[in-house]
Amino acid sequence: MMKRYGLLGKTLSHSLSPQIHAFFGDYAYDLIEKSEDELNAFFANPPVAAMNITIPYKKTVIPFCTELDEVAKRIGSVNTIRFDGDMVRGYNTDYYGFSYMLERAGISVVGKKVLVLGSGGASATVCCVLKDQHAKSVVVVSRSGENNYRNLHRHCDSQIIINTTPVGMYPETAAAPVSLGAFPNCEAVVDIVYNPLRTRLLLDAERRGLKTANGLAMLVAQAHRAAEIFFEKPLDKGLIENGLCGLEREFRNIVLVGMPGCGKSTQARLLAQKLGKQAVDTDSAVEQTVGKPIPDIFAEQGEAAFRRLEAAAVQELGKFAGKVIATGGGAILTEENRDALRQNGVVVFLERELDALATNGRPLSKNREALEELYRKRLPLYREVSDVTVTVTGTPEETCRRIQEAIGQ
Fold it and tell me: Which residues are catalytic?
């Protein structure tokens, strides 16, 4: 009979673990939801050969273990268990995952003052790695205690900031645990949150030119190490990057920005069809909300009212994963909108000659002079928000192929 593996937790409907472990081999991996009062019976007759452990049971399972690896002992947290006859062996692979995350991002903590936001289980793992990697000092910030969010000014000289809290995680993606403006010496920001891929904290860090890392690398790397424990043999390290690339392709949005009439909606439909994704449109979302076409909204309520409706649509659609998003030409006018589009997306600027832009039904493209002025004002913002630029020429199919080449899909 094929051995089975899995993830033990309380609520697992949003877990990525089955998708991640599929990159490491062809083995059965189940989500095992149990309440705390079911754990005794589960461990008395476990249906798996080995498993991962997630919140809230990383400490709860320790009494069930007959043996702990050194890292699990030091941190007081177990996230992987292997059943060997009467032996129940507990391990902590989050330590390896976080170490990999730092190395991949090129972030060295040696001799640095590091500010760790949060004092939960993830914080303990992070602090253990930081001390082993010879950080000069590690300051843990919590809601109460000696170092808290009311006296952060004491640590404005911090060089690296690491968020281990859920602040900024989906669906509350507009939140950030701290303002980076208070840390002039900051060199790098790490956020263990992976949904969205770019939290508000990381977006702020990118604007400041700081090194950044999100939690997806940690998630995949710890799972890779767990799979090695499952099978008691080393696995190809290249599988970690394969898993990361695969997940990012699956979950990231493709966001199309550009002038009104440049072909964003057409390209969104073509890309969605070719890549097996769903196409969504911020203008269509506004029209569905109001029940009127955009020219009527402009005529009856004015541009300011439309922009408020557009911002709400952008904020909501930007939280999606795995979509192709066509935006209105002015969706990039505010920093909040630009952040919302970038949080889970690779942003493509579709650049097209002004003479080739479609203008029918577009309130702000009434004449050549107005169009040129609009382009002059918006071009810097299109360039700021975008990851790649694709020129719209030839047939729609040719432009679509160029987009796919530019984003590596």
Answer: 58
What is the rounded CA–CA span in Å between residue 381 and residue 387? 12
**What is the strand order of the sheet 188-191 is part of?**
137-141, 113-117, 160-163, 188-191, 211-213
**CA neighbours closer than 13 Å in the CB half-sphere of residue 184:** 2
Q: Which two tokens stand for residue 208?
A: 């400041």
pLDDT at 354: 87
Cα Rg for the chain, rounded, in angstroms?
24
Query: What are the extents of the domains in the chain?
Result: 4-90+220-241, 96-214, 252-407
Nearest C-alpha neighbor of 8 from the set 103, 66, 82, 113: 82
What's the pLDDT tens digit per position in 194-221?
999 999 999 999 999 999 999 999 999 9
Backbone torsion region of residue 170, taken as left when φ is above 0, otherwise alpha when ψ lies between -120 and 50, otherwise beta: beta
pLDDT digits (tens, 9 = 90+) for 26-36: 999 999 999 99
Which letter, b or e, does each residue of 139-166 get, where b requires 16 or more Cβ atoms within 10 Å of its Cβ?
bbbbeeeebeeeebeebeebbbbbbbbe
**Residue 363: what pLDDT?**
60
Q: Do domains 4-90+220-241 and 96-214 have the same CATH topology?
A: yes
Please tell me the distance from the alpha carbon of residue 251 to that of residue 244, in angstroms, as a whole number: 11
- Tokens at 276, concatenated: 């097996």
The number of residues in the chain equals 409
For 239, what's the count of Cα atoms within 13 Å in the CB-facing half-sphere? 20
Homologous superfamily of the 96-214 domain (CATH): NAD(P)-binding Rossmann-like Domain (3.40.50.720)
Architecture of domain 252-407: 3-Layer(aba) Sandwich (3.40)
User: What single string gives the DSSP state of each residue in 161-177?
Assistant: EEE-S-TT-TT-TT--S
Q: How far apart are CA 116 and CA 188, in angstroms?
A: 12
What residues of the chain score a pLDDT lower than 70?
Answer: 1, 359-367
CB 351 within 8 A of CB 262: yes
Give the residue among 407, 405, 351 at the shortest CA–CA distance from 378. 351
Q: CA neighbours within 13 Å on the CB side: how many for 100?
A: 21
Which of 3.40.50.10860, 3.40.640.10, 3.90.1150.10, 3.10.20.310 would CATH assign to domain 4-90+220-241? 3.40.50.10860
Q: Do the Cβ atoms of 382 and 368 come closer than 8 Å?
A: no
